[in-house]
Amino acid sequence: MSQPITRYTYLTSGLAMLLISALTLPGCSTQNETGGQSKPTPPTQGSVTKPLHKEVGEASWYGPGLQGKETANGETFDQKELTAAHPTLPMGTKAQVTNLENGKNVEVRINDRGPFVGERVIDVSKAAAKKLDMQEDGTTQVKIETKAVKKK
After folding, report:
1. DSSP state of 65
2. Is the distance from CB of 137 to CB of 148 less than 8 angstroms?
């Protein structure tokens, strides 16, 4: 005696087919020319890494008036170092700052908080301002980019 076909029968047979497909699919793989399985290639040292933080805005610089004063992370400010103040980036972050008016760039380390003037996005040290060629004007439009830091 045969049993009547119901929605339950279709549902269970469909689920069985789905389960069989799911279990057999991972066993399938591609093979390279030598017959071995292909593996994803890990990123190389020359790989391009997307920035973690990217920001565009006005930069200013600070130096002589704060020389020797304590920064937000407790260091003594030295205008001859490539450092900067940013309102939110974590202390110690390395940031690539590019002057959008002339294309010059510099890597700075965030060790202070600021700027606290207008809509400015970063204050760079005198040494960084010199590398960006922005000392005379005092401010310039910049792009700030940070990348992931490799853990040791």
Report:
1. G
2. no
- Stated pTM of the model: 0.65
Range of the domain at 128: 53-146
Question: What's the number of domains the chain is made of?
Answer: 1
Q: Are 112 and 63 in contact (CB under 8 A)?
A: no
10 belongs to a structural domain: no
Q: What is the CATH number of the domain that holds 75?
A: 2.40.40.10
> Which of 63, 139, 52 has the alpha carbon at shortest distance from 88?
52
Taking the chain (152 residues) in runs of 10, the rounded mean pLDDT of each run is: 48 46 44 41 49 92 92 96 97 97 98 94 97 94 85 56
The kind and range of the H/E element at 108 are: strand 105-112
Q: Is residue 32 part of a domain?
A: no
* Residues β-bridged to residue 57: 142
The two most distant CA atoms of the chain are separated, in Å, by: 99
| Amino acid sitting at position 27 | G
